[in-house]
Amino acid sequence: MRSDLDRPGFLRARPALSTHRFVGASALVWAALWVGGPALASAWSMPDDPNDAKQAELAVNDQRFNQVVAPFLAKYCVSCHQGDEAKGGLQLDGITDQESLVKNRRDFENVLMRLEDGDMPPPNKMPRPSEEESKAVREVIEVILSTFDCTGPVDPGRVTMRRLNKSEYINTIRDLMGVEFEAGVDFPSDDVGYGFDNIGDVLALPPLLMEKYLDAAGEIVEKAIRLPETTRPSVRTLLNQHQVLVSTKGEIAVDLPSGGERWEYVLSIRAWGDQAGSEPVKMGLLVNGQQVKVFEVKADRESRAEVFEHQVRTRAGTNKIAIVFLNDFYQPETRSDRNLHVSAIVAKGPLNGPPPEPTAFQKALFAVGADQRKANEVAATRAILSHFAARAYRRPITRDEADRLTALARKIKRSGASYERSIQVAIQAILVSPHFLFRVEVERPPQGQPATTTSERAAAASPTPPTFAPIGDWELASRLSYFLWSSMPDDELFAAAAQGKLRNEAEIEAQVRRMLRAPKARALAENFGTQWLQIRRLEDATPSRRQFPAFNEALRRDMTEETIRFVEYIFREDRPILDFIQGRYTFANERLAKFYGIDGVQGEEFRRVELTDDRRAGVLTQASVLTVTSNPTRTSPVKRGKYILEQILGTPPPPAPPNVPDLEDNRKARAAATLRQRLEQHRADPNCAVCHIKMDGLGFGMENFDAIGQWRDKDHGQPIDASGELPGGVTFNGPAELRAVLLKSRDQFRKAFTEKLLTYALGRGLDSHDACVVDRLVQATAEDGDRISRLVVEICLSEPFRMRRVQPAQAAPIDLKAAAR
Which residue segments constitute the domains of the chain, with CATH numbers given? Predict the structure, then answer.
C-alpha cells in the first residue's frame, strides 16, 4: 500500500468552501491577472468599509465569472449539460452569473471535484481543456463559492405540512393510546424523496390511504376503549377444512377455551352425509363427554350441506367439543355406505360473559373527567376530549375545536349509545383529523387575525421576500420527537413546551441527550439508519440458494438486526461518527457469529462482539450492506464502489450513458476469465471508463466478501485479488487498507453523513441556502471529537430546525440566539 494516500487524487480531505478562505494568494493573483490583466488586478485594493469591500469583492467575482467560468462552460460543458436531456441531470446552460452559480453550489462542489480528478470533460471528448485552463476555472469557482456570505440571516427553507408516514403513525398510536397497531400491507407504502420516506413534499394523502385511515381509526378505538354494553361475542373457528369424514362411530374432537364458569356459546356445525339405509345420518354433539344434542343430517352432498346450531354451557378452562357419528350403516351386497361429513365447527360467544376489563388507556382517559361526570356530564366530556385532542394534535386545542368535539359526542349519546361509545366516536374523529395525521405548524399572527399554516402563506403570491422567525415551542417539541423517536412527544417534552423552556438552547440540548438515551431512540436506527444504508432493500434480495446455501430467512433477519443495533449503539452511546467506517465491534447472535466465523457466542440473543482481526470493521463489511450491493449469483464491485461513492462519500457518479450494455450483456466481457478482466473490458469503452475507474477500484477492495457477506480467500478455485487503484495513483489491497483510504477522506464522509442526517431531520431536501449550516455542523462535530451527539444537538439548534419562513407582515427578522437569551 502506498504511503502517500493524502496526495492529490480522487479521495481526499476537502475543506469547507464557505469560511471565507482563499486558495492561496499566488494562485488567486495568477488567476486574476490571467483573466483580466492589470485592470482586474487593480480591483484587489479593497475599501476599508466592510460593506463597500463586500460589494467590491462581488464585482470582482462578476468579472472572474464572465471572463473565466462562462467561456469555459460554453466551450467544454454546455453541449452535454443543457436542457431536459442534460447528462447526469446536471443543467449548466442556466448558469449565467455568479449568483446562479452560488444557487447551485452543491452541483458546483461536485463539478470542482470532477475537474480536479480530470474525469470531466470525459477523456474521449474533444476539445479538452488544458491543465492551465482547468486550474484557472477551478480556482475562480472556489473563490466565488468561498465568498458566499454566511454572516447574515440563515434562510431556514420552506416547511411543507408533513403527513405522518407509516412508521410515525404506528409509533404515535402506540404512544398515544397504548395500541400496537400493525398497518402491514393494508397501508400503501410511503413515497421516498432524497433517500427517505419522511420527506414532506412526497407524503401525499391519496383517497385510498384516507379510506385506510378511517378503517384504522375504527379498529384502534375498539381496541383502546372496551364498551360495557356490547360484550360482543367473538367468533372462533374451531375446525375449517374442506371435509372430514366420520365413519364407524368415529368422532371429531376440538377444544373450546372459556373464560368463566357457565358461560354460554352457540356452536355451529356444517355437515352433510352419505345417505344409506332406512334413516338419515345422525350426528351427536358432546360437551366434555356429555351428549347434549342429536341432529339428523339429511343433506346428501357438500353443495347442499346444512348448518346445525346449538347453545351450550361451558366450564372455566378448556372444554372438549366432540362430533360423533351415531348410526353407521354398511351393506356389502349393495355397497350401501352411510357416512357423516363435517367441514366446519364455529363457536360464537360468550353470550353471557361479564363486561370487558377497561384498558389502561381507557382508565386514564375517563379519570380526567371522573369528578365532573356525576354533576355535569357535558363538562366531563369536554375535559376528556380536550385532554386527548391536545395530545393527539400535539398542541393546545382551541375553544372551537373543543366545542365541536363535545357536540359530536353529545349527538352520539342522544342517539341512544352509551357514554363510552360517544367518547369512542369523538376520538375516532380526532384520529382522522388533519391535525393528527399531519404535522401542522401554525403561524401565530397578531391578536385578532386568523392563524394560517406555513404552506398556506407560502402559496399566497407576494412581491415581498419572506423573513424568518422561530417556530413555536409545541412545533419544536414535535420536530424533536419525530426526528429522534419517529413518534409524538412524551410528557416531559410536552411539559417543556408548555413552560416555554424550548426557547433555551441548554434545555434543547438536555432534551436531545435524554431522548437519545431513551429506548424509543431505536427508531432513529430503524428509520434513518436503514434508509441511509439502504438495507431495507435486503427484504427483496434473492441470493442464489444453490450457490449460497447458508442464506435463509433467519439469517436475513439477523443481518438487518446487526446493522440496526450497530447504528443504535453509536447514537445511544455517543460514539464518533467515524465508527461507521472503522468501528471494530458489531452485534451478533450465535447464528450470525458462526456465519462470520466468530467463536464464543451462544443463543438467539444479540450482544456486542469485539472484532479482533482486520477483516471487518464499520458498516461496509456487515453482511446486510454486502448483500444489497451484490447480484444474486455473484459479487458486484461496481455496485459496492457506487455505494461507497453515494452513501459514504456523498459523491454519486452520473447515470450510465445510454446504449451501453450491462456487464452481463457484453459478449467480449463474458469471454474473459475473471470478473476483474470482464470489468476491465467494460471500462475499455471511454464512456464507461470515467466512472468505473473509481467505482471498480473501491469495490474490488471488498472482493474478499462473497455475495452474502461471507469471507473467502478464493473464488472458483482462484485466489481473490482485492487490490484497487484510484485516480491520483492511490493503491490499496483488501478491506483494511480500503478503510485507511476512506479515513483519509473523513472530511467528505463528515459532510456526506451530515447532509443525510440533516435531510432526515428536516424532512426536506437541502438547498444552496443550507450550505453554510452544513459547514458549521461539520466543523462543530469535528471539533468535538466527531461525537454523534454533538452533530445531533447542533442540528436541533440550527436555524433550519428551529425557524421557518414567514411573511413580513407577521414577523420581523429575529436573531435566534438573542431570542434564546
Answer: 25-146 (no CATH), 160-231+359-440 (no CATH), 234-349 (2.60.120.260), 534-747 (no CATH)
